[in-house]
Automatic annotation (TrEMBL):
Protein name (Swiss-Prot/TrEMBL): Phosphomannomutase/phosphoglucomutase
Family the UniProt entry places it in: Belongs to the phosphohexose mutase family.
Superkingdom of this protein's organism: Bacteria
Listed Pfam families: PGM_PMM_I, PGM_PMM_II, PGM_PMM_III, PGM_PMM_IV
Amino acid sequence: MGDLAKIFKAYDVRGVVPGEFDEPIAEAVGAAFVEVTGAVSVVVAHDMRESSVPLAEAFMRGARSRGADVVFAGLGSTDLLYYASGSLGLPGVMFTASHNPAEYNGMKMCRGGAVPIGGDTGLAEIRDRAAELVGAPATPTGSLIEKDLLSGYAHHLRALVDLSSIRPLKVVVDAGNGMGGHTVPAVFEGLPLELVPLYFELDGSFPNHEANPLEPQNLVDLQRAVLDTGADLGLAFDGDADRCWVVDERGASVSPSAVTALVATRELAKDPGGTIIHNVITSLGVPEIVREHGGTPVRTRVGHSFIKAEMARTGAIFGGEHSAHYYFRDFWFADSGMLAAMHVLAALGEQDRPLSQLVAAYSRYHASGELNSAVSDQGEALSLVRAAFEGRGEVDELDGLTITGPDWWFNLRASNTEPLLRLNAEAADESKMKAIKDEVLAIVGRVSL
């Protein structure tokens, strides 16, 4: 039996199956979910992991034992679950461990309208109540209805981004044996896109590579296929297909900051003067470009719960993160990698330049990428860095330590789950960026593990 305190994270549930997360726990969480949220009906979907079906079935038994009706959507991406929650107006639960290895599974939960449930918005209460219910008998009384939502999801996305009149494009998609292999064919059907599929077979053992496009080694096959096939671009999705990474026709990565800026300009063209959310480690180019296009940039902490809360508070039309999560007001303020990918395809297909030239206008600075350092004392390391940069730039502590100079900035923040400090640095000049990065890492190294 697992330890619920260990698998309930800040935003979701995640653990090794069955050692940390098993069917009795899933059943107890189902009952607790209904009790805490007061849900009358719940929509449930799952990814392709071997453990996802039995865990989802256990959760549904628990939910139905509290009288709730269940709409079972079956296989889906996480953004399909958000579509289901938004379009049906129901609380929802997605069974997935996203990009984690095969032995993991988990749950992402939301209220009706895809409003996220996090540690301070109900997840802790669900955890505590589930701990009391583990092993208790659960007799289902609510109904169970199976509903295919894939075609509705695809139709909804195509209504938000019209690709029907773009020039023909060849696109390589690496689904990583994850849920993109299920959703991409449905969304792309009938569009002027020549699809070159990589690893579309649903396989939760991830036989080809991890379904985590943030790690460069997981992009190698996509980059090679783009070059080998002469494709216009490549797209890589993570395991639950809520994140999307873009590579250009040369096989070079397009930074999520550049994608954020590109999509922001398109959304601002539809909704002039709108608010755009970006986190503290998004490129400085994002707020610059947003202002140049008449929008209002709002900076927030890293993490989807912060982004979604700020989007709802400000009525923002779009939000982007360095981690390739992209959030849309017209998608219930939820994130959809597919929708971001469609914006990139539309922007590329509406003009004649290659993607590398198109995105050059959105890539103004040189970035280090995220660099992790294991430290013995996060607080001491942050204090040493702050002291070393005293008087050299503007300091803020919205999320970790950010110091901004005349043509550079860096952010150093602590991991919530590991003894790590995460560094992101950026400058107008590459040599300046490297100098700042090296200086910070040298200081952090004094308290390394």
